[in-house]
Amino acid sequence: MILGFNQILPTKKKILETCSIINRTFSCPVYLRIDYNDQQVYLSFEKPTHNTRSPHPSINLLETNPQASVIFRYTVKVRVHDNKNKLQLYVLLECRSVNRCIENLRQFWPQFVLLNDRRSSYFIFHELLYSNETNSTDCFDDRTNQTIQCSSFYNMCSASSETERTCTSHSNEFIYSYNKAYRPHRLTNESVYYTLSCQVDNCTDNESIANTADNIQVFHSYKNIITLHWNNVTLEYMIIRDNQIWFESGPFFIHFNQTYYSSSSNQESISMLPLYLIEQYETTGIDVVLGSFNKLTLRWSSTLQTDISIWETSFKIFQEQPIILFDQYFPLDLDGMSMGNDIDTFKHVSTAFPRFKVSFNQTDQYVIDHLGHFTFLEFWDLNMRGIGLKNLFNGGLYSGNPLLLYNLTKLDSNIILSPLNNFMTNFQTRSPSLNYHFSCGLHGRIRQIEQSFSLTTILLASQSNQGINKITNQWGKLLLQYYGKQHINQHENFHEDFYISKLGYYTDTGGYYWYNTESNLTYEQTFINLKQYHLKQQIPVQYYELDSYWYYKQDDYTGEYGGIKLYEPRPDVFPNGIESLQREILKTPLIVHHKYYSIDNLYQDKYKFLNGSVGNASLPLEQRFFNKIFSQIKQWGVEILIQDWLAFVYELLPDASYDVHTAREYHLHLAEGAKQAGIKLIYCMPVNPEILETLENTQVHYIRISDDYSTNINQWNIGRPSMITWALGVIPFKDTFWTTSIQPESTYGNFTEPNVLLNGLVALMSLGGVAISDKIGNTNSTVVNRLCRTDGILFRPERPATAMDSTFLGDNGPKGEMWHTYASDV
């Protein structure tokens, strides 16, 4: 932390107080630069690491004290002396161990003074001029020019002015200062003042003083809500919220040329080479969405013999909002970054910034027990919450992104962290190779980086009265603004969207007719009978979904698995085609299923595909191919396409995640093709990066955020994941459901649905599709009538029902689920 004093400073104003707010953590290093009389003095409260390079020599106040580890925390105050414009440095140190604090202090320094008897952990250290064995000391009195004895423990030999020493009583605060002329490497108790170099003649100008004081603190804090402390000696930083450390940094880390580099390699669990800080500098700027910021940039090199940076990291602290951005920039092409090829590689990152120490056991000092977390912990995680950072996810493909931490005793005190760009490569994990620290960075499958690539992580802190729901919505609003995307509820004719306003029918997993037809009938004949049943029983279904059973799959497989070989209706399924089904039989909008392609697909002669080196998946790479597919299904009467099996693009096609472009471009191609044809998208089985990627995709209107309906009776519990999707401007979807408990001769064995009304209610309150999937003759009209009018118009709320803040309180919260939404009078 650098504090420049070649500026106008407020009289008797505390400029810097660091580490006085630390709870249950190890020593907090402080590094001050004091400018006086055109000279610079660097004061360090902790010995610099071996790979720390400072442009100036430092005065190491604890350098000669091997027992420095007993220090628990420091409080540092820098003040201007009355009417003299002089500098005073106050130091308060707290011992680590309460029970043996006195013994430790005597080992640390032979002399000490107790500051407060009620709290034995607080001590002011000072170096008295008398020995530990006596209550008196000799003092050379400058006024009498002779040696006298200070006989009481409460007296000491100290400077009573700038030049004279005599016996004086100590006050409630002891002043420590760097005295260049007298014993420069040791603490003194002399009141040594240094004249400040002022930039204006009148150093007491109140307006100038106030402005300067604000400028000094702006890099570190936003209205005392969120504070960043940077230590340029140890190269460590802390995030402080509500006078407590929420994050304490781990070392900067990068992996390239198949070699690990760390800014503090001695702290790492595996062997790493040093990463050298070759330059740091501060700038200011304006982000058109987020506002004005101060920026601290750090340039890193893998060698000391060069000024060429291989990696740049920067903090952006915003002045108008409680936001910190952590930027990674790659000024050169880098190779050899991959940590492996299998699915567990996503639990690693090849760059780590920010990186925070997080415990995963009961004794780790970085645990903050009163914090809860709200994030995805695993695939199809519907609970999404836990207590204590030690229970945080291990990371990987299915966890994190975003991570919200909240105070269990004060729910409007929270912080949310997420990627801000390059979502398909910017992961959150607790990498085993990085001491299980919480790390944000490039996922471990990426093999190389191109020059000028960047990653950004955003940290947003809540303001007053912003609970978990409000900060989540604020985070989503900021991201939508950043990408210039409109929230779904701002779309013209939003309430007229048939998918959210009308009753539908599904044949996907869990539905009665999923890979199952009426006995000895084709799907076309089954749909004819189904439509007649709905009309006869006045079940007002307004759209139908066709799942993956209708198109050709790899090796001509007719089951659910296998990629698309040919995206055309099979004649044994729909003999007259899908267009005929829509126009002549169903006469409603259609929703169709789509997923990844197979390596034997029939389009590769005309279009470029990426065939996986393992597995059998293939990914189309050309925009014109997607244009063809969407134009084709539009002619069939399709209004919505379900892009399914999204997670399996990572699992079955690792080649798509070897570079930083392919996975993202796949989604952009989908979006553009759908946009040109006027077709909306439902994302199904997405991993968390793909949920965030919808920020760049205007056509994703809905996301299925639950597991398959099937036999999973708890997949209705979507109150927490709905918070994320709705904040990002996308409608959550629960999936289909049965309206009767028993569906005879279903393909799900003896499964019965015990929660018919609950599933219907959740589907209705989700704002996503309300799609039944019963067998012909088994739809409960009473249930349907509770969901919609006789014309199929649903009884809808204005927004999805989401979990209330109180459900995040652990044992102090409600025992069941509590969600909230509202409806308009219109």
UniProtKB/TrEMBL annotation:
GO MF annotation: an example: galactinol-sucrose galactosyltransferase activity
Keywords annotated in UniProt: Carbohydrate metabolism
Family: Belongs to the glycosyl hydrolases 36 family.
Protein name, entry field: galactinol--sucrose galactosyltransferase
Species per Swiss-Prot/TrEMBL record: Adineta steineri
Enzyme class: transferase
Top-level taxon of origin: Eukaryota
Entries under SUPFAM superfamilies matching the protein: (Trans)glycosidases (SSF51445)
Catalyzed chemical reaction(s): alpha-D-galactosyl-(1->3)-1D-myo-inositol + sucrose = raffinose + myo-inositol
A Pfam family assignment: Raffinose_syn
Record EC number: 2.4.1.82
